Amino acid sequence: MALRIVFLLEDLCFGGTQRQTLQLALRLDRSRFEPVLLTLTGETDLDEEARSGGLEIHYMNTGRSVDWLFFIRLYRTLRALNADVLVPCTALPNIWGRIWGRLLKKQCGRPRGVVGTVRGGGAPKRQYEKWLWRLCDHMVCNSLALQDVLKGLGVPSSLVTCIPNGVDTERFMPGPVSLQERENLIVCVARLCEDKDQATLIHAFEQVCGRIPDARLRFVGDGPWEDKVRSCAAASPAHGRIEFVAGTQDVRPHLHEAKIFALSSVREGQPNVLLEAMTCGLPICATAVGGIPAMIAQPANGLLSAPSDSKGMADNIVQLLEDERLVLSMSDANRARAVRDFSFDAMVSAHETIFEQLCAE
Prior knowledge:
Helix 3 (about 70-80) crosses helix 4, helix 8 crosses helix 13 and helix 11 crosses helix 14. The longest helix is centred in the first third of the chain and has 18 residues, at about 90-110. The protein starts with a strand and ends with a helix. The chain has a seven-stranded parallel β-sheet with strand order 3-2-1-4-5-6-7, with helices on both faces. Strands 10-9-8-11-12-13 form a six-stranded parallel β-sheet, with helices on both faces. The chain contains 15 helices and 13 strands. The chain is an alpha/beta fold.
């Protein structure tokens, strides 16, 4: 009988965690696993893709907001879904999913295992890992930097596994137009939120414009800080060369148009968007936070600057825009590394092993 794996998420918006979770659920071996999605909100961006892949989806609400009674209904819903393994994803599910999952395990024997997930540099704090890791039977993080943080909080090495994000190397390919023929477009695909610190990239771009007058900057995404980021861009002397595009299920057209991919985060795990950009053969300018330095070896795969350092990021962007040979060598190196080290097959197989081991125990 297939093991019933319930993934608990806040929503299915265009976020890195949501997309990775969806791909994991879609790619699990259906002869051994029965994936189920449960979201705290109603339908959002990725639901149609989930349904078309044959996934069972349940909703706790009809909109994007969460009412104050959700945690009571969540207990009842989780009990009815009768999971073999419960996998809470993102902050709120990693709090309440663990609490109710542990209680249900004691009362009913199901779920047999609770797998906590830790993605993003701010996740250990937002998810109260200092206390709540004890409610998990196993922990999964997506970077060695996060694994070290968890171990520092007391999580035994035997209870935490680092599984890098996966990327579809057949879907994400270099674009039809060569890098040297593209305009000087810098693209940032990311949620508009505090962790991504788009303001630093805007200030860096102001300095870039003084040296590369035809440069353009495009933000692709939405999120809770959208008004703040747009206001920062509007107040910038380079506002006429900054554009915004709403979050989309398919970011490939933007990656195929860009000459450089930039990310100015102050906290990260292992950014999914960096993998997609690398797989499309883009050179990278990013901040040296979280798991990014393990992904980007300078100068082979990209150039890194300190978080909140707009001058350092501006210098790196200008260096790439002015050095065609470096850009082309990075392009080849990034595509090769993504194909070699970040396949979906390895990511899915590692999760399947954890699920089966927990149920066997």
